[in-house]
Amino acid sequence: MKKILFALLALTLVFAACNKKAFLKKLVGTWKIDRYLFDGLERTLYFDTTFRDYTLLLNEDQIYAINYNTYSFAPDSIILVDTLGYDSVNMVYVINSDTLRFMDTTITPYMETGKWDLINSDEDLQLRNDANNNVSIYRILELTRKDLKLKKGNEEFYFGK
C-alpha cells in the first residue's frame, strides 16, 4: 500500500513540474499592450498616447524589462529679425520682424529592468525594479501562448505577442 501511495505521489510531482515548465514557457517572451481598462472602462487610447509602444519583456533568466516612449508638447516660437535697408531721409533702418510659432515635441524613452518571480502559487507576477527596489505585483488572470491578461488594483492590462 505504501508503494502505491509513493508511486502516486511521485507521479503527481512529475506532472506538477511539467505543468510549471509549460506555464513558464508560455509566460516568457515579449508582450505588447493591446488593451487597457481602468475601473472596468476602456482607456486604451489614453494609455497608448501616454505610454507609447509599451512592451513587457520576460526572459528565462527571470529578468524583465519595461519599455515605452513618452511625448511632451510645449508651445514655442522664434522671432526672426531682418534689416531690409536704411531710410536716409528719416535716418532709420528699415527692420522686418516675424514670429514663427510652433509646437516643440520631446520624445523621452523609458526603460525599467529588474527581476520577476511568480508568487502565491504561481497566481501573481512580481516585478522588482533594480533601480529603486520597488515591487509591483500583478494578478495573472489569463495566460495562453499569444495572450496575457494582468490585473493590478483597478487596472487591467491585455497583452499580445
How does this model look, in words?
By secondary structure, this protein is α+β, with helices and mostly antiparallel strands. The chain has a single domain (about 1-70, about 110-160), classed as Lipocalin (Beta Barrel), CATH 2.40.128. Helices cover about 20% and strands about 60% of the residues. The chain has two helices and nine strands; from the N terminus they run αββαβββββββ.
Summarize the entry for a quick read.
With 161 residues, this protein is an alpha+beta fold. Helix content is 20%, strand content 61%.
Task: Provide mean pLDDT, rounded.
Answer: 85
Largest beta-sheet characterization: 8 strands, antiparallel, barrel
**Percent strand:** over 45%
Topology, number of strands: 9
Overall structural class, as computed from helix and strand content, comes to alpha+beta
Helix content: 10-25%
Q: What order do the strands of the largest sheet run in, or round the barrel if closed?
A: 1-3-4-5-6-7-8-9
- Architecture, CATH level 2? Beta Barrel
Rg calc: 28 Å
Helix tally equals 2
Q: What is the CATH domain class?
A: Mainly Beta
Order of helices and strands: HEEHEEEEEEE
Count of discrete domains: 1
